[in-house]
């Protein structure tokens, strides 16, 4: 069984709903929580570690550690807060820089964008079109989810796990990394 690490930047409620099928009304914001679960992805049994981290820029120094070890990324924001979506661009750029150093192109980095709290229609500040436009600009999937009502939670985690398994197939040893240079030339 292959181990995969998914880094979730943002909404802890989504992770708790996925792992425990439970919605926690009140929880303390965390810097980091780690959860382990087993998932079936395209017929493969995978051990998945979900590293749930604070999505705010105040923890950017810690993010680089998570980004190096992450196989895939869930960038979550609250549909009830414009500020939360605005922080994602900086976080995404840091992920891409980190993964580029490992030889991955932006298209190869497994990532999903998630607007959480889609059930809070009257409190919504981020229009659906904004999430869709960002998703199209990044060429990554976008989900509107509700941890409270279990809307699109399974789907978004299935999507990111499927992307990660495609990038790092279970039969492959080690992480997939492209060679930046095929040989060394001394001039």
Automatic annotation (TrEMBL):
SUPFAM superfamilies: P-loop containing nucleoside triphosphate hydrolases. It comes from the Eukaryota. It comes from Mixia osmundae (strain CBS 9802 / IAM 14324 / JCM 22182 / KY 12970). The keyword Chloroplast does not apply. The lineage of its organism: Eukaryota, Fungi, Dikarya, Basidiomycota, Pucciniomycotina. GO terms for cellular component: plasma membrane. NCBIfam families: small_GTP (TIGR00231). It is found in: Cell membrane. This is Uncharacterized protein.
